[in-house]
Amino acid sequence: MAAEREPPPLGDAEQTDFRELEDGEDLFISTASTLESSPSSPEPASLHAEDISTSNGPKPAEISLEDDREDLFAEATEEVSLDSPEREPILSDEPSPAITPVTPTALVTPRIDPVMFERCKEELEEEANGDSFDIDISVSDPEKVGEGMNAYMAYKVTTKTSLSIFNKKEFSVKRRFSDFLGLHSKLASKYMHIGYIVPPAPEKSIVGMTKVKVGKEDPSSAEFVEKRRSALERYLERTVKHPTLLQDPDVQQFLESSELPRAVSTQALSGAGILRMVNKAADAVNKMTIKMNESDAWFEEKQQQFENLDQQLRKLHTSVETLVCHRKELSVNTAAFAKSAAMLGNSEDHTALSRALSQLAEVEEKIDQLHQEQAYADFYLFSELLSDYVRLITAVKGVFDQRMKTWQKWQDAQAMLQKKLEAEAKLQYANKPDKLQQAKDEIREEIEEWEGKVQQGETDFKQISKTIRKEVGRFEKERVKDFKAVIIKYLESLVQTQQQLIKYWEAFLPEAKAIA
Amino acid sequence: MMQEGLDDGPDFLSEEDRGPRAVNVDLQTDATLQVDISDALSERDKVKFTVHTKSTLPNFKQNEFSVVRQHEEFIWLHDSFVDNEEYAGYIIPPAPPRPDFDASREKLQKLGEGEGSMTKEEFTKMKQELEAEYLAIFKKTVAMHEVFLCRVAAHPILRKDINFHVFLEYNQDLSVRGKNKKEKLEDFFKNVVKSADGVLVAGVKDVDDFFEHEKTFLLEYHNRVKDASAKSDKMIRSHKNVSEDFNRIAATLYTLGTQDSTDVCKFFLKISELLEKTRKIEARVAADEDLKLADLLKYYLRESQAAKDLLYRRGRALVDYENANKALDKARSKSKDVLLAETSQQVCCQKFERISESAKQELIDFKTRRVAAFRKNLVELAELELKHAKGNLQLLQSCLGVLKGEL
């Protein structure tokens, strides 16, 4: 870690290796604030300097320990081999002296570590960007604009923040669904191929939107709009939570500027849309043909973990959707029973019993309301979170795929370089002196070009690997936070339901006892 | 095999609440004749009930004895009451419904077929649930058969019936064959005629206010109970569905918890455990609602039908009486067969009056029983709902406490 702290001995050449330099500083948001001032990216440079002979993927030891530590604490059971534990003491200037030096054995210590680390990480992040998480976004007031098939819903996006990157402290704009899609599309094209997990936008729904356009004022279209509004809000919240994305001018423009150019390319049948589909297909094919020699167990393990997680979350999502459906049914049936009980009470000729039956009907009616509310909670808390995460994991998997592509590009460059070297060697033994020099020069040029490309490829690969590690660490942390928060909220909703139930039945009991 | 501990969690439902005691009727059991079903055995496609009698009456050879009876024999007894003219003026206790394990058996079979497609835990859990369901249905059918016998034993006239005594005492198979096709057809026609007549008879306005009121009341009441019974069934089924969903969710959360290597795995495991427990409570809520509410409504559906049948019989007797009167007048005017007509009229009159008298008492008793049963069940329903909700709340709150501490 020492390399990180000192101004790196960089030459300009190395700096140009990193095309995404404008994001370079973002890589260090999570580290101590002292680093903010460093404009370049010392880490990759040091990696580059040390790593000359690796043929594939950076060895774990060479990745900044910062990332290692993230991994260690995020997945306590992991085995990341640390070749240089002596780096640890230098971490002392971070505000977390409580963290014990990490050795492989420490990896399997009890849960205390992750919690500790999490707290420290938050402290770090807060320190690093003082007000980095002081931004609050809400999506509200859906309004139908226009008529017929050209109609659309406009949503008010309100931002409250004290961050310096914004011009005001509080501001709102009107956006439509395709604007959100446009934002996502831009972010994805900028960041996904270098390994950033870009939160996916909410899904399109032709059926839902058509109903709204056609102007049906029924509860199901109101539900649809609410579902979408909530999804859009969650989407924006996730996007701005990402420190890199928050810095992106497109995001800022989206939140701030009153006029936004129509994102036509998000339409499914536009030229861009068709291009996207073609690319997706091509990607799928490529994925099948790329056979990567994974020398980094971390990635293999992670991919497997995400596969498993994906599977289970999908299963859970389906089960929860069924629960929502059944709960709604229960509400309907309870209401029907309530009415029926009221009728029965009416026809009962014993006065006290008649009254009790009417009371029963009232209780059941209230309970039906309870069921409805609980179904609402089931859905918005639980089910939607799960569907968000299913889509997020698809984005994560996409990022892993990008890494594979980057690796492939590197390999291809190497193969090309090899060919050129062989060609050069052949020329050495050729016997045409007059053409030779010219050909030799040409080949020399090409070789230099390809050597550069190979270096670039390698660096890109290492970079994306590093970014992914960080992103995954961040993602896991967010995931843990999200799920914990939702589980607690959900339990609280269940608690409330039970408390209400108790109230209702307690009120009814004396009525039942009063039947003489 | 009737008393089985289903819960390994806290005791939310004591065994008395689930006992097969006749809860739908408030009966005065007196020492001279006490009947209950002390045991039951479920075989392939039939259930064998052990009917246990304790009596101080001289008619029986012993003071305490038991016999084994099957459903068909209960039906035979019931039908013998219905067919007996002497009992025309009484509400005949409704026959218990046939034990129906088909649905449950089908589910168990389907589960067996689908065994390969689910994890071992899931399978065991579902099997346990289906077994519990089977047991619940079993208990119910025992209860319903018992109620029938108790009603007969409590009725001052019916308890003296000779067929009833044979039923209780004769320790051999009664060889009651189920009705053959011809008899079933006869029954069908009888019912058709009856319902047509029922309409006829119901149309005739009764001189007696009491009966007029009862007629109107019963007709409406019967329909509404039918509706309430159906709706309560639907509601309870939804309730069961919800609790089953929690089962699946708990299982998946458990898998997630074991797979996850982050901090949140503890959350998953804890909430999976909670949902399991909460689901059990929800299932019991549904079962209790079934027992206290749905069964109550079903029973009174059958009893109100029996009461309607009584009214019909009285109505028939009234029509016969009025016809006899007309015949007498006709005979007198023609001065032909007057004595015959007179006797016939007398008989009809007596029959009618006898039925009216006992019917009045029966209907009053019916109301008393009904009110008492509803009161008992509604109170118990509310108490059980409260008990479960409180238990649920406790579980949820303690889990929340633990999880919030883990944050």
TrEMBL record, chain B:
GO MF entries: phosphatidylinositol binding
GO CC annotation terms, alphabetical: cytosol; endosome
Classification via SUPFAM superfamilies: BAR/IMD domain-like, PX domain
InterPro entries: AH/BAR_dom_sf (IPR027267), PX_dom (IPR001683), PX_dom_sf (IPR036871), SNX5/SNX6/SNX32 (IPR014637), Vps5_C (IPR015404)
Key words of the record: Protein transport, Transport
Compositionally biased residues, Acidic residues: 1-14
Pfam families xrefs: PX (PF00787), Vps5 (PF09325)
The PX domain, residue ranges: 27-174
Residues covered by region (Disordered): 1-22
A biological process term (GO) from this entry: retrograde transport, endosome to Golgi
Keyword check for Cell membrane: no
Family, per entry: Belongs to the sorting nexin family.
Protein's name according to its UniProt entry: SNX6 protein
Protein source organism: Polypterus senegalus
Gene from which the chain derives: Snx6
